[in-house]
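Thread title: Can someone regenerate the structure for this chain?

I was given the following input by a collaborator and told the matching structure tokens would be attached. They weren't. Posting the sequence so someone can regenerate them.
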Amino acid sequence: MKEIEMINCPVCGTKFIPRTFYPEEAIFSTLDGKKLSGFNGYISSRGVKPQEVILSTWKTYCPNCNYILNFVKEIVRKEKLHVQKGPSNDVSSKYNSYYFGFPFGDYTQYLKEVSRKMEEGIKTILNELDIETWENLYIIEDHFKFLVKFFANFEHYCDTKLNMKDEKDLIAKVRKLKLTEDLEKNLLDLNVVKDKLIKGDYELSSSEQSTIRTVLVKFVLFLLKKQLESLINKEELLKGYEFLNRTDLESEIKSYISQYLYSTFNSDPKSKKQINLFLESIFEEAKV
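Best answer:
Regenerated them for you:
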């Protein structure tokens, strides 16, 4: 197959990526009016030996004018065959078959190629966010140890990724991130809880325990969303890929991100709901 490129319609001049190619077998008519699709039947019924016969074609159509385009799929070609018999060379003929794949890349291949490039961009974002650092927190069952490590990671992120080294106040760092109102409140409340646990003799409420178990996924999704916004912006998503359907590309991106997130946070059933809401909301907001 050639590099994925557009077909230029010979009738209306429209350039397009074919949705797909449909195979069609050649039908031959015999002298007595019968229809044959097999090459051997065609040869025996005609009594002729053509140099070349097209057995099947790839068909597609122009989405603008509906003109049907045909490309060779399979041909048989009569070729000379030299046979050594004693001192002489006998020359005979033999029919050889030749098969041709898609002449151009179709829409599915085009979508797959673009999706692969998008996935590479997402991988870069995940690497920049150092998701593994946050993943490792998920195995910490002790609430106190979890909070200490979580806020240590949080401050490291702010200092190294957002250049907040000069800001020593954790509360100020939280507010500078411009989190959602709900997530900001969670972080500020849990910082207070952490300080109380450090002082000792503090019993966590069931509500605080629930918040601790969900804050990690919430925060990671916030970081991911912040980085993905430019990638899936409605103005940028199809830039250079105008022949793709936005919904198709969104579906591929969503599938890739969801697979990664579900495998990362699959130990907590609550995370599934958060991830689903995240995937729905991020694309809806990008369309606004």
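Residues 7-99 form one domain.
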